[in-house]
Design brief:
Elements: E1 3-18, E2 22-29, E3 33-39, E4 59-65, E5 69-77, H1 86-102, H2 110-124, H3 129-143, E6 165-169, E7 173-176, E8 188-190, H4 191-198, H5 205-222, H6 229-233
Parallel strand pairs: 3-5
Antiparallel strand pairs: 1-2, 1-4, 2-3, 4-5, 6-7, 6-8
Helix pairs in contact: 1-2, 1-3, 2-3, 3-5, 4-5
Length: 240
């Protein structure tokens, strides 16, 4: 049965040309997760809503179709476009790629949708990039069911001890490092930093370094080890 979705709040995550004048868009929608939509004639100069077919533009979109690829019927703006430049643009493209890679279609993620919108607004306002991205990554993993246990040792169940060192494994979590050889391993972290990450106290540089390493390991597991293209392309951006 052909399905129609009317005026769904959405953001465009990615766009690429299709055939002569059309576009294919990846939307992040409020109630239907990621949706792939064809816009017939979307690249033509006469297309009346051409200016809305850009990432970071909050829109209301209507589309229909039977399969995974829907057809755009209507699109309109409902909030001002979010303007990102320089490193903030690179950061926005990075989180868009994470969503494209990890979101599934037809699954509601209303909380994550709000987190995404708020993150874009923080980037637009000039917020500190690294804490903003780490917060988003934590929320992304949690909302998709891949949250990291920052409370306890996955082997013993004991609470994380601020004075101990722990090994992190993306599939299971943190386990105490009995060898005390924290300097030779990239997955060893101080308990105090794990606790700070749990409490979202990640402004300090040492905690930010821990957050970045832990989240890279956790995301790599969910991405199947495949590299994040935007991270490689914009490797000079300090937050990625």
């Amino acid at each position: 049965m052909k399905r129609k979705i009317n005026l769904q709040p959405a953001f465009i995550l990615h766009r690429y040309p299709f055939q002569n004048t059309s576009l294919i868009l990846d939307f992040f929608t409020l109630n239907y997760g990621r949706q792939r939509v064809i816009v017939k004639g979307g690249r033509a100069s006469r297309f009346k809503s051409r200016s809305l077919l850009q990432p970071f533009q909050p829109v209301l979109a209507s589309f229909s179709g039977r399969g995974e690829l829907k057809t755009l019927i209507e699109i309109e703006s409902y909030e001002a476009s979010i303007k990102l430049q320089g490193e903030y643009l690179f950061s926005g493209l990075y989180i868009n790629e994470l969503l494209i890679r990890l979101l599934e279609g037809d699954i509601e993620h209303d909380l994550l949708f709000q987190v995404y919108r708020d993150t874009l607004l923080l980037l637009q306002s000039g917020s500190d990039i690294e804490p903003t991205l780490r917060e988003f990554e934590l929320e992304l993993l949690s909302n998709l069911g891949y949250g990291i246990n920052l409370e306890s040792d996955c082997s013993t169940g004991k609470p994380i001890d601020a004075k101990e060192w722990y090994e992190f494994y993306a599939q299971s979590g943190f386990t105490i490092n009995h060898s005390k050889n924290e300097s030779q391993r990239t997955n060893i972290f101080l308990g105090a930093h794990i606790i700070a990450l749990r409490n979202r106290e990640i402004e300090k540089r040492t905690v930010l370094r821990t957050a970045k390493r832990v989240l890279r390991l956790a995301l790599a597991e969910q991405l199947g080890g495949k590299p994040i293209n935007s991270r490689n392309l914009f490797s000079k951006s300090r937050g990625l």
